[in-house]
Amino acid sequence: MDGLTRVCFLKKQTRVCFLALLLTVSTVANAGNQKEEAIADSVRLALAKLVADPRPPKPTFDKIEERIKYLHWLGEMSDRLKRRIPDKQTRIEFLETVWYEAKRAGLDTGMVLGLMQVESGFKKYAVSIVGARGFMQVMPFWSRVVGDGDPKKLFQMQTNLRYGCSILRMYIDMEGGNLFLALGRYNGSRGRAEYPNAVLANWKNWEFKA
């Protein structure tokens, strides 16, 4: 192989690798297209208040038994998540935030983790083909509807989880507690079974029995 042929071959290989990388990135996030729909002013204002709360995700407990249960959960989930988030400090901070935001929204932590496994594979900077962002694949329009208008903040861990959990809670309430329909609505596929079934299946990976 002469010098020019070798250069052309290497350039071709580089292009192939780059295209493969793009395909890999584009498939990291499996979010559907959350719909921007009309919501009552009271709901919008309540949601805006929730996402604007500046308190850090640090839990408090009235009883020592509750704290012990939480610490057991934290340790067990950290072990399960180690392969996906190798850095221990990052993993613990992530799980602390998941627990805080899920409980704050009245959601099961296992369900929230299962949703993130489906949506982003626990990738902080995941972006879907329709533009949904972060761990919980929140669409940028939400930052305008209930936030400060800065969609870049959806890549911040607590902001993303707070938006995601609050939006899912809103959908559950809108659907009268029907989790199947609420999950479909979150994904932009209301009434179809694929997405809710995937979340419910992955929920089992994160169940915790004290």
Counting copies of identical and different chains, the oligomeric state is: single chain
Low-confidence stretches: 2-28
Radius of gyration: 20 Å
Major sheet details: none
Cα shape: globular
Please state the structural category.
Answer: mainly alpha
Order of helices and strands: HHHHHHHHH
Helix content: 55-70%
The average pLDDT score comes to 83
Q: How many distinct beta strands?
A: 0
DSSP strand content: under 5%
Termini distance? 65 Å
The number of helices is 9
Protein name: Lytic transglycosylase domain-containing protein
InterPro entries: Lysozyme-like_dom_sf, Transglycosylase_SLT_dom_1
Keywords: Signal
Organism: Undibacterium flavidum
Provide structural commentary.
- This protein is mainly alpha-helical and 210 residues long.
- It has helices at residues 3-26, 41-52, 64-81, 88-104, 109-119, 141-145, 157-174, 179-187, 194-203.
- Helix 2 (41-52) runs antiparallel to helix 7, helix 3 crosses helix 4 (88-104) and helix 4 (88-104) runs parallel beside helix 7 (157-174).
- The chain is globular and about 45 Å long.
- The termini are far apart.
- The model is unreliable at 2-28 (pLDDT under 50).
